[in-house]
Amino acid sequence: MIAIKQITLSELPELQKISRQTFLDTFGSDNSAANMKAYLDHAYGDEPLTKELTDPNSFFFFAEDNQQILGYLKLNINQAQTETQGPTALEIERIYVNKAFKHQGLGTKLFQKAIEVAKYHGKSEIWLGVWENNAAALKFYHKLGFEQIGDHVFQLGDDPQRDLIMLKKL
User: Fold this and answer.
1) What stretch of H or E contains 91?
2) Phi, psi of 95 (to 5 degrees)
3) Would you call 123 exposed, middle or buried from its count of C-beta atoms within 10 A (0-12, 13-18, 19+)?
4) Is 140 helix (H, G, I), strand (E, B) or coil?
5) What range(s) does the N-acetyltransferase domain occupy (predicted)?
6) Is 128 exposed, middle or buried (0-12, 13-18, 19+ CB in 10 A)?
7) Could you tell me which residues come within 8 angstroms of residue 149 by beta carbon, excluding any fewer than 6 positions away?
8) Residue 43's domain spans which residues?
């Protein structure tokens, strides 16, 4: 049975492992090894993840089955958002599922957790950034009712990439 549980600082090594693996699986074939290494070291090192895990405005969750980590979710509110979208917004900064467990409804379960957290904190909209070339993710977010409201640059090593800003009102 799939469980969605909040991650604690004591689970930093497991979070690093799933973060690095899912990011590499998702974007590795479309980017240079040097840019991937630069991003993985910058985003998923001990220091940045510890800071994020201890931020009271950020929330991490694992999707687990029999203590096996299948995917994870990172949410931000208030000042923890990567871009200010206002006091009514919750950001889904990361939502990743291990490639062996995709197409089993885990992304939807993680998204439902995001809605639950948003409502708990009195938020009325959810936003995220998604790479313009990630067709599978774009299809998933459109299916969930997200609409593009803008774009921004996502810096991957020395490669500036375009992310689409998507929003869903609750």
Assistant:
1) strand 89-97
2) -145, 105
3) buried
4) helix
5) 2-170
6) buried
7) 127, 165, 166, 167
8) 2-169
Distance CA 18, CA 15 (A): 5
Structural tokens at position 167: 């929003």
How does pLDDT run across 106-142, given as a tens digit for each residue? 999 999 999 999 999 999 999 999 999 999 999 999 9
Catalytic residue among 39, 44, 72, 141: 141
Q: Say what percent of the chain tops pLDDT 90.
A: 98
Hey, what's the torsion of the CAs at 107, 111, 112, 118, to 10 degrees? 170
Average pLDDT, the chain: 96
Per-residue model confidence as pLDDT tens digits over 58-87: 999 999 999 899 999 999 999 999 998 989
Q: How many domains does the chain have?
A: 1
Residue 141 is a catalytic residue: yes
String of DSSP letters for 17-59: HHHHHHHHHHHGGGS-HHHHHHHHHHHSSHHHHHHHHT-TTEE
Residue at 81: amino acid letter: Q
- Return the CATH number at 161: 3.40.630.30
